[in-house]
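Quick question, first post here. What does this chain look like in 3D?
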Amino acid sequence: MIKSNQRFFNFILVLFDIVVVTISLLLAWYIRFVSPFFDDGVRTMDLGAYLDLLFVIIPLYLILFAAFGLYKPYRKQPFYKECREIIVSNIIGITIVMAILFTGKNIHFSRYMLGMFFAFSTILMMIERGLIRKILRMARERGFNIKYIIIVGAGSIGQTFATKIIGDRQLGYKITGYVDDYYHKMEKNGIPILGTTHEMNEILEEYQVDEVIIALPNTSYKRIDEVIDICEYQGIKTQIIPDYFHLIQGTKAYFDELDGIPLINTRYIPLDQPFNNWIKRIADIILSLIILILVSPIMLVTAILVKLTSPGPVIYKQIRVGMGRKEFWIYKFRSMRCNASVPGDIGWTTEDDPRKTKFGSFIRKTSIDELPQFFNVLKGDMSIVGPRPERPHYVTQFQHEIPKYMIKHHVRPGITGWAQVNGWRGDTSIHKRIQFDIEYIEKWTLWFDVKIFFMTFKAVFESGY
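> Answer (accepted):
Ran it through. Tokens below.
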């Protein structure tokens, strides 16, 4: 029954999304070609041509919405995360649409109109989802669309779960009571104890419940088996809270499977998902090519000035540790004299480092020396956004000194990163840097990368990043 309700709800969502996408296109067409806001008299293509575009846009957008989890149950997904996924999926969608038009040499479609369509579809979809949430919340407050649950286990695990359920009414769950073998016919934090696990069958027959949450320690595996058997006999869904859930790090648990054997990853890393990794890699390649083309004059002038201001090679190579703890050569414009002392290879570069040339100080302060690293991105050694890579000497040192330091090597290192745009760069607290790096790794989204990318410009121009 629950699954059929969810399928029906998803069907309604799909219909609403189709309506929103269609209205957004029509509204953009009207404002561009009919309204008085644009009085240039341009009418490159009639309405029929734009309506034909919907046969590409609608299936593309629905696939993207499904890929970004926009048809998952609302109860367990915060609204701000849903808005973020709407924005990202719309950005990818309009990019693909424009790429298709460009590849097919359909140059007569209005760019202004497509831009307005992107804005309207993003805004209207967030309004649509917000209204649906509001309606569902109001319905739940009036007793509709409520799921009744029983928690098996009134210990610390069960109480922690109950506290979260009670503290977030929009989840739409109501706790009927606890089932526990050690507390008999009493209340625990205002929630009644309905009986023991031996009375589970009678309890389920007496109370109408949708789900049973098992919050027992792993040592009680026999009781867990019995409870699951009884619930399945009664046709009631069960979910288990592992008593080692506190060991799971990051934003959420990540479940995997090996030939039928379930595995729980103790740290969820979004970029371990092939789709996320693929999206980020494609974005890195496209953006790196665009940036290299745009900054090629700057790189040419920089190369000439590096050569003129001090003897030695233009490009400086240094071994760094990347994803999977593999070493690679990182590229930079040389900013120091070639006769700099050897300790520089294992020492931090300071603000007034005497080894730097005058021009080297300038390109380091403006981060122009980092531009060759976009070739590292194209090679696959680095990403545009990610934790900054360190030299092997420091990796070995910090691995022993800083807990969880090596987690940063789960992803590709970046030219810029969450720690750097927050001021933790160079000779600053490595503990703080790792804290921000882990936060980035665990909370990665494409939108997060976009945010860091633009924050980098602010950091460069305001604080000499």
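The two ends are 56 Å apart (CA to CA).
Residues 274-309 form the longest helix (36 residues).
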